[in-house]
Structures are given as C-alpha cells and as structure tokens.
UniProtKB/TrEMBL annotation:
UniProt xrefs under SUPFAM superfamilies: Thiolase-like (SSF53901)
Protein name: Beta-ketoacyl-[acyl-carrier-protein] synthase III
Source organism: Helicobacter marmotae
Gene Ontology molecular function, alphabetical: 3-oxoacyl-[acyl-carrier-protein] synthase activity; beta-ketoacyl-acyl-carrier-protein synthase III activity
Keyword Transmembrane helix: no
Gene from which the chain derives: fabH
Domain description: The last Arg residue of the ACP-binding site is essential for the weak association between ACP/AcpP and FabH.
NCBIfam families: fabH, PRK09352.1
Compartment(s) where it occurs, according to its Swiss-Prot or TrEMBL record: Cytoplasm
Assembly notes: Homodimer.
Length: 331
C-alpha cells in the first residue's frame, strides 16, 4: 500500500531577535506582563529586505537537502501564509518556487491562518496517495511583522516571523505514514481575529478605508476560550478514532500561540511535559510556520526519530482548525 510520508523537516529563523524589553520603547508593556499572559520572551523579525518568499526559500532549500532531493524532483509547491509578498498576486509559492529553481510546476498559496500547516498536510497527503505527484514541498512562511500595529500592545507583542518546510513523498511503510489529517472551519467568528482590507470602496478610498489598515486585529479573550475548547475536542476525536491514548504519542506539537492555551489543552489531554513541544517562548506566534518550526527544533535536538508518532494541533483566524497524526518518515 502507498502512504504519504513526511520525508524531511526544516525551518528558517530570521536574523533579528526582538526581546520583550524592546517593546517597552513602543507601547505600555513590560517583560513581566508579556511573559505572564503569553509565555513569550523573544521573537524574530525579518530584515526589511526580506519577504515571506525569502523565508520560504531558506526553509525549502534545507528541506530539499535533508530529503536528498533536487529542485527537479519536486512536483508541486504549496505555501500557507497570511503575510505574503503581495496583496493578491503573484502567490508567495510562485516566488519561492522560482527562487528554489522549481519552474513550470504547480505552485500556489492557501489561506488558513495559523492552521495553515495542517491544511498543507491534508492537501499533500491527497496528492501523494492519489499518485498525482511523487514529491510535494509544503511551506508555512510568515513575515507577520509587516502587518502588525505597533501601537496595539495586545497584538504586536504576540507575533514573529519565520518559515518551516517539509517534503512529502511516498512510502510503503505504515510506520512512516501520515496517518490521518482532520481540518475544519467556521466563518461565524470572522471578526474575532482578522486583518481588514484597506480599501473596499469604489475608486476613491474613504477616510474610514484609509484608517482601516491591513494589520492584525484580535479579541484575545474570546479567541482564548474558543481555541482551548476546539483544540481539545479536535484532539480527543482524533485519538478516539484511532483507538490511541496520550501515551501512544511521542510528541504533541500544538500551534505555538500562547503558553496558557498550550498548558490548558495539554492538561486536559493528559500529555506530560516531555511530550509537549514548546517554542512559543523563543519564536512567539509565527502562524502557519509555527508547527513546522517547532517540529524542526525537536529534529535538530536529535529528539525526532524515524517512525515517531507526532500529534499536531492548530487553531487560527477564520476560525480554522486542524489536527494530524504523523509518523516521522525522514532520516
């Protein structure tokens, strides 16, 4: 039987480290306030010259190397981002693919916010198992610093930039398989976490349009409550479906948005500290890049071995959500 398999994992962290103390110069906040509410201590911002496609390129290049593949071996490139190089077109995937030397192959973006990587896994799994493609490069890439309101202390301290990439290929070993992926969405909650479109009028923008900048807006308390409930329910359904318990999981890798959310979900699901992967304190919330960046940290610490079963779980604007049971199929 043919299975979709996660063949490699890689990430890229941009060069500029921003501490909580740095935000004290911009807004009414301090390190204690940020750490207590979010667990975040630092985050990384891309250079002004770097765009999301540049971050995607760096992560994608390393993912190809670790999979032992050349650019010519990749049949499709899919990127999830909410902070792409352009407002609408061309896609960040098109630009990243070209920079990687992948031309004349399908390349497109998806928009699923912080759940984007789970959605990418679902697409890649379908492409591989249907034998449409042999190798798919999926990348979560974000330059969220470009869409932050640095006068809003409730949002600007929460996010960072980065990219994470995986090569998804085929395997005949069930111990290397992407076992299952579940995704969902509900647009009922659109105004709890969103980025406004700057101009929605005809021809001449109104004063309100000009003030309605495309920056992250969020109702944090409401997002927190719905996220904890949804993430916990999603994981329980996935484990029950496959007759698994928390003890069967090598690593629980949730979306790295907020330490309090992660701890609340982890406690309800009975995962221990050794199972829960935490990187939010280092990178903050990097949206679609968050889960692959966290996965890569485990890999580079020599903690991720062939066949290890990971449980991934994410929740994001839309609202969107998703979970996945993934064996590591890399070397």
């Amino acid at each position: 039987m043919l299975y979709a398999s996660l063949k490699s994992i890689a990430s890229y962290v941009p060069p500029t480290c921003i501490s909580n103390a740095d935000f004290e110069k911009l807004v009414d906040t301090n390190d204690e306030w940020i750490v207590e509410r979010t667990g975040i201590k630092t985050r990384y911002f891309a250079l002004p010259s770097q765009q999301a496609s540049d971050l995607a390129y760096e992560a994608g290049k390393l993912a190809l190397q670790r999979a032992g593949l050349e650019a010519s071996d990749i049949d499709a490139v899919i990127v999830s981002t909410l902070s792409g190089d352009y407002f609408a077109m061309p896609s960040t995937a098109c630009l990243a693919a070209f920079k990687l030397g992948i031309e004349n192959k399908p390349a497109f973006d998806i928009s699923a916010a912080c759940s984007g990587f789970i959605y990418l896994l679902s697409l890649a799994k379908s492409f591989i198992e249907s034998q449409t493609y042999k190798n798919v490069l999926i990348i979560g890439a974000e330059k969220i610093s470009s869409i932050l309101d640095f006068s809003d202390r409730n949002t600007c301290v929460l996010f960072g930039d980065g990219a994470g990439a995986c090569v998804i290929g085929a395997s005949d070993d069930p111990k290397a398989a992407i076992l299952d992926v579940h995704t969902g969405a509900n647009g009922r909650y659109e105004k709890l976490l969103y980025t406004p479109r700057p101009c929605t009028g005809f021809m001449v923008p109104s004063k309100q349009d000009l003030e309605n900048q495309s920056v992250v807006r969020m109702e944090g308390k409401e997002v927190f409550k719905i996220a904890v409930k949804t993430l916990t329910q999603n994981v329980n359904e996935m484990l029950q479906k496959h007759a698994l318990s928390a003890g069967d999981i090598a690593y629980f890798i949730p979306h790295q948005a907020n330490l309090r959310i992660i701890n609340a979900v982890g406690k309800q699901l009975c995962f221990n500290d050794e199972q829960i992967v935490l990187t939010v304190q280092k990178y903050s919330n990097t949206s679609a890049a968050s889960i692959p960046m966290a996965m890569n940290d485990v890999y580079e610490a020599n903690g991720l071995k062939y066949g290890d079963l990971m449980l991934l779980d994410a929740f994001g604007g839309g609202f969107t959500w998703g979970s996945a049971l993934v064996h590591f199929g890399g070397k």
